[in-house]
Specification:
Order of helices and strands: EEEHEHEH
Strand content: 15-25%
CATH topology: Nucleotidyltransferase, domain 5
Number of helices: 3
Strand order of the largest sheet: 3-2-1-4-5
CATH superfamily: eRF1 domain 2
Distance between the termini: 16 Å
CATH architecture: 2-Layer Sandwich
Helix content: 25-40%
Largest sheet: 5 strands, mixed
Number of strands: 5
Oligomer: single chain
Length: 125
């Protein structure tokens, strides 16, 4: 399978927000914004264990919402702030649907949707 026919996706993410970029026709065409996902704020818990479990559950839900935009991804580039990119790539590697996916990550500040599309296009061209 040539690089042009691979299902390529890009994500800018931090622990609260993700912007998902993919090709117009799944494996061909220009890159476009596929969606935005938000990680809902955690509620107040009286003990640390419950707070950690809630945070983990919400993060797992956030990751699942992101992957819903990337069916059968072959190649992924994740960028953003913090450590959430590494956590997301680990989550993807542990998900059977994505276990053979090639994932890369980098660090970058928040950027506009247009700049993100340019950035991801440059990574794959």
């Amino acid at each position: 399978m040539s690089a042009k026919n691979k299902k390529q996706f890009g994500i800018w993410m931090d622990s609260h927000h993700a912007t998902i970029v993919g090709r117009e026709q799944v494996d061909t065409g220009n890159f476009v914004i596929l969606g935005h996902e938000k990680n809902v704020a955690k509620g107040n818990n009286s003990n640390e264990n419950a707070a950690n479990n809630t945070e983990r559950t919400l993060q797992h839900k956030f990751f699942k919402e992101i992957t819903s935009h990337m069916q059968n991804a072959d190649v992924l580039h994740v960028t953003g702030t913090g450590q959430v990119q590494e956590q997301f790539i680990k989550y993807m590697a542990e998900t059977p649907q994505f276990k053979n996916m090639i994932a890369q990550h980098s660090t970058s500040n928040k950027m506009s949707d247009e700049k993100l599309v340019e950035y991801i296009s440059a990574k794959f061209n």
